Amino acid sequence: MPDGLSECPHCGAPVDKTVVGNMETMVDSDEARIQIITGVTVAGRYEIKREIGRGGMGIVYLAFDKTLEREIALKVIPYELCQDPRAVKNLKRETNIALGLSHPNIVRIHNLETWEGQAFVTMEYVAGGTLAHLLDEHGGALPLAQALPRIKDIAAALDYAHTRKPPVIHRDLKPLNILITTGGQAKIADYGLAHALKDSATRI
C-alpha cells in the first residue's frame, strides 16, 4: 500500500493504517497455505509426479488421476489470481468454452477445480515438448519437410475452433502454447486460458 492512500487501489475498499500494519505482520502466504507441489495428492485424487512446465501464468505438473487411473497434466493457477473474483469468473468462462472443444490437434481440457483455496485446471497430458523447444533445437527455423505437417495440424485445429458457433478464438497462439507429441503431432494448448490469466494478472 503506497503511503497516503485511504482505500485499496484495486477494489476500492477503505483501508486504514491499522489494517495495513496487521497485514505486514501476517505469515507469508506461501507458508500459510498448503502448496501443490511434487509428492502432494491434491483433493485426494491427483498425485503430483513432477513439474513439466513453468511460466508467469502458472506451473504445470504431471499428475496421476487415481479415479480414472491415467496420467494428466495439472496446471496450478497463481494464488494471487485465485483471490480475485473477476479473475476466477473469467477463468470459469474460458474453461467452459474450452471444454466444448474436441479435436485431435487441441489439448483436451478436463476441469477447473479448487483445493485448499488454490485453483487448478486438469487437462490431457501430452508427452513430448513444445514447438518453441523444437525451434530452438533447429536454430529457430524448421526444415520445410518438418514444418508442413505441424502447420497442417495447427491449421486444422484453428479451422475447427473458428467454425464453431460461436467461433472460439485462442488469442494467445505462440510456439510455447503448441505441444508436439513424441510422434510429431502438433496440439494447441491453453485455448482461452492463457489470455484470461494474462488479462487478470495485468489488472493485479
Q: Can you describe what's shown?
A:
This protein is an alpha+beta fold. The chain has a single domain, classed as Transferase(Phosphotransferase), domain 1 (Orthogonal Bundle), CATH 1.10.510.10. Helices cover 33% and strands 25% of the residues. The strands form 2 sheets. The protein has a 6-stranded antiparallel sheet. Strand 1 and strand 2 (46-55) form a beta hairpin. The two termini are 13 Å apart.
Largest sheet: 6 strands, antiparallel
Low-confidence stretches: 22-32, 200-204
Apparent shape: globular
In order across it, which strands form the biggest sheet? 1-2-3-4-6-5
Mean pLDDT rating: 83
Reported by name, the CATH topology is Transferase(Phosphotransferase), domain 1
User: How many β-strand stretches?
Assistant: 9
Helix amount: 25-40%
> For the record, what is the CATH homologous superfamily label?
Transferase(Phosphotransferase) domain 1
Task: Map the helices and strands.
Elements: H1 17-24, H2 29-32, E1 41-42, E2 46-55, E3 58-65, E4 70-76, H3 79-82, H4 85-99, E5 109-115, E6 118-124, E7 128-130, H5 131-137, H6 144-162, E8 178-181, E9 186-188, H7 193-203
Helix pairs in contact: 4-7
